[in-house]
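ingest -> validate -> predict -> emit
validate: passed (alphabet ok, no gaps, 205 aa)
predict: started
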Amino acid sequence: MFETLGSLTTSPWIYAVVALSVVLDVFLPVLPSGVLVITAAAAAAAAGAAGPVPVPEQVPDIAALLVIAATSSVLGDMAAFRVARRGGGRLERAIARSRRLTLAQERLGTALARGGGALVVIARFAPAGRSVVSLGAGKTHRKVTEFLPWSALAGMAWAGYSVALGYFGTQWLGAAWLGTAVSVLALFAAGALAGFVIRRPSPAV
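emit:
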């Protein structure tokens, strides 16, 4: 898989693929958007370490990759937020059937009502956590001004973490494939930790 993604990073379409993947994975959490961002950053790091060797023009620019990943994350969140606000009874019934969705929705509402949206940031790293939070915020008709700033912070944190993993991991380990593999494991570890924090019962007030 890494070889396939690696060849994609030299394509002029890499930014469009990253943007589309990050936007859509709020609806399809199985999309490897994080892996794709890491692989693109690793390719940029490997090209930078090549020294005097000519660098292909298609190698991703780190700054552009960071901005596109963060922006696409927010756009995807807001799309899910809008869909959920207009979802009606079908979405409500789907959420009601899932204890995890119901619990996450309740916790999100409490967190946003208290002016603290750290849960939105943490959930961005958890498997399907972004979907739960964005849909839950829309379904409960939270104000855009309550949700958007935390979504933006979550997108920047996730994009910064993913890009830094791929870029610095490859620089430190010296090989793009090794840096990518280790960085992906670190991304999954962060997701597992975030999932644990979200599932942990809230302390009694």
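Residues 50-56 have pLDDT under 50 and may be disordered.
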